[in-house]
Amino acid sequence: MTDRLRNSMKPTDADPIADPVSNVPIVNIANILTVFRIVLVPVFLAALFADGGHNPWWRVAAWAVFALAAITDRYDGRIARQRGLITDFGKMADPIADKALIGSALVALSLLGDLNWWITALIIAREVGVTLLRFWVLRHGVIPASRGGKLKTLLQVVAIGLYILPLPGPLHWVAVAVMVAAIVATVITGFDYVWRAVRLRAEGSARARRAG
Predict the structure, then answer these.
(1) In 3D, which of 66, 65, 54, 70 has the Cα closest to residue 166?
(2) Cα radius of gyration (the chain)
(3) Is the dihedral angle over the CA atoms 142, 146, 150, 155 positive or is it negative?
(4) Do the beta carbons of residue 60 and residue 166 sit within 8 Å?
């Protein structure tokens, strides 16, 4: 067998048979950061509810844990893409970690009486709905994250962080303003995701009919 023939049989980046994801070890820095974020969730909740949930020092500690977890969310995906460390485990665990952090923080703040339950219900319902939509269109394609979706996540994280901190009265209205912006972004991006999912599914069905 010649070198040219051997080289032609090697999988390349353009070869659809090659599966780089399957060759990436599960234990890598990106997945470690994702798992670390999941582990931080109960630590965050323990600090938030410590001493009745309204001790200023414990609230600052809870905010520090929440901020650390949010930072890992910022970098685990970027590291995975830049270093070629994307795995099936990471694809599954990353959104679970995100929803566990945001959802637990919202529910905890509502239990403590710091955040209206309708806000918590609205945001969680949107996230669950988007997850279900992803499954609905999965065989037709993947809807990429939009700038609006990234802005929504940023606003939610900042708003929740401000609500966790023991802010004095005037500064508390800053938290309220950011939360209102987060709610608006949550609703708008939710409708945008529904529209894109319906369009993607319709296009996929049309392609299937033409192929059949």
Answers:
(1) 54
(2) 21
(3) negative
(4) yes
User: pLDDT for 100-157, tens place per residue?
Assistant: 999 999 999 999 999 999 999 999 999 888 878 877 776 776 666 678 888 998 999 9
- 């709905």: which residue's tokens? 129
What backbone phi and psi angles, to 5 degrees, belong to 87? -130, 160
Question: Mind listing the pLDDT tens digit for each residue in 35-64?
Answer: 899 999 999 999 999 999 999 999 999 999
Contacts of 204 by beta carbon, 8 Å cutoff, 6+ apart: 137, 139, 140, 141
The torsion defined by the Cα of 203, 206, 207 and 209, in degrees rounded to 10, comes to 160
Cα–Cα nearest to 53, from 113, 7, 5:
113
- Where do the H-state alpha helices sit in 50-168? 56-82, 88-111, 117-136, 147-164
Q: Output the furthest CA–CA distance in the chain (Å, rounded).
A: 79
Residue 133 makes CB contacts below 8 A (sequence gap 6+) with 143, 193, 194, 197
In this prediction the pTM is: 0.79
The whole-angstrom separation of Cα 140 and Cα 117 is 35
Which pairs with CB-CB distance under 8 Å and at least 24 residues apart come from 46-55? Answer: 48/105, 48/108, 48/112, 48/164, 49/108, 49/112, 53/111, 53/112, 54/112, 54/166
